[in-house]
Design goal:
homodimer; 253 residues; Cobalt-precorrin-4 Transmethylase, domain 1; Methyltransferase, Cobalt-precorrin-4 Transmethylase, Domain 2; 7 helices; methyltransferase (chains A, B)
Chain lengths: 253, 253
């Protein structure tokens, strides 16, 4: 019996943002592996074993999934958003490179999903409409100096910046430190978008100026986007505003 | 009669990568607006008017769609990939800001799609598994000096780089110039992924070392990804290789 291993992106939360390709893989699965809250997003059915695990055990989880697939099971590792963006796909290939040589020739597929940053951007306009970067603000797997160096390079080159994992119970000061660093480069008026639990009933989107941005506005489900010097807001008579970054850019930016 | 305007991402090509949310919007539309090859990807049906237009007329196309929505029609502007990434969403908000004040309070929604870079990344492993940036290599709307400055900043800060619009009939030298610039910063062994027509029958994915990368490998449907100094390849016994960027990063990177 030949097993298979799929790493699937469930998107930001809503069912209507899951691709048919991912739904087909879920329907074919014998085993679901992932961080427990993501596994819980997939409906139970007979013949589907669910292996929810704790956060921050990505390599163990990947090796477990690889062993199941090698035994002949049809395994789906579920990720939130897109699995290739600060999620399970990189952990899987780390496990493959470090693990059994035979794992390299298993039937493995990565299925893309709607990433948190594009779902968040869509809700507020088009903040990522020009050159942008995505930075994982967590310093669990890289030194904080590397994060700061990248923030500085990105702002000086005038990229829009999407920050993943801006805050957690164990990491409280990093986001405010990032805002302080960016205030030294950008005008205080640059828009900052806090997008929390996008497409979920708890969804909340706030826009503030960089000069007033404070880290406590974010929680573990928040994606933060900091505009470039060119990012603009459009006020609406009905209240609220759109945020977008024009496609063009002058010589100075 | 109250009209509506949706900007919808059709993903990279395959039907199975279109979200249910986008399919529902297409089913509700009275008018489809977009670059003709994208409009052609949506099946004809009675009651659906199709307004395909030429490339590079994004602002006119957006204003046309806004006028139709203001007249009470249900308009969907179709984009390839994700509409917020070098596509129609930014053009729409440029047109809104420059246009009729009443356009700001139309019923407008942006619906995310699977972007070319995440679809391409998924096909080859997890090249975007660490901090990355997306740069539109076209110098139609920004000076080439800005492109070079961003490429240099991104490589020096060790971002993985996704290049959109790497080449066109009118822009032939930019991609080779970008490779030459990056060879001055990165080791020649850094993997470069050329992903063409992802999820389409014509799909082709090539991986070469930066030292051997040549622009003529790309065409208008190619997404180019250049690894960071940490990006790795895993050879498979069956031929081919995975490309991924580990989640961790040492102090030097």
């Amino acid at each position: 019996m030949t097993g298979s291993l799929v790493v699937a992106g469930l998107g930001p939360g809503a069912q209507e943002l899951i691709t048919p390709e991912v739904n087909a893989a879920l329907a074919h699965a014998t085993d679901l592996v992932g961080y427990a809250p993501y596994v819980a997003r997939v409906a139970e059915r007979p013949g589907l074993r669910r292996h929810g695990s704790d956060n921050r055990v990505e390599l163990d989880r990947a090796a477990f999934a690889l062993r199941l697939a090698a035994e002949g099971h049809h395994v789906v590792i579920v990720s939130s958003g897109d699995p290739g963006v600060f999620a399970m796909a990189a952990a899987l290939f780390e496990a493959i490179e470090a693990g059994e040589p035979s794992w390299r020739d298993l039937d493995i597929r990565v299925l893309p999903g709607i990433s948190a940053m594009f779902a968040a951007a869509a809700r507020i306009g088009a903040p990522l409409g020009h050159d942008f970067c995505a930075i994982n603000l967590s310093d669990n797997l890289k030194p904080w100096e590397t994060v700061e160096r990248r923030l500085r390079a990105a702002a000086e080159a005038d990229f829009v910046i999407a920050l993943y994992n801006p805050i957690s119970k164990a990491r409280q000061w990093q986001l405010d430190k990032a805002f302080a660093l960016l205030r030294g480069i950008h005008p205080a008026s640059v828009p900052v978008v806090f997008a929390t639990a996008v497409s979920d009933p708890r969804e909340r989107i706030d826009v503030v100026a960089l000069g007033e941005a404070v880290g406590s506005r974010a929680d573990m489900r928040t994606l933060v986007m900091i505009g470039s010097s060119q990012t603009r807001t459009i006020a609406r008579a009905s209240g609220g505003a759109y945020v977008y970054t024009p496609r063009f850019s002058g010589a100075a930016s």
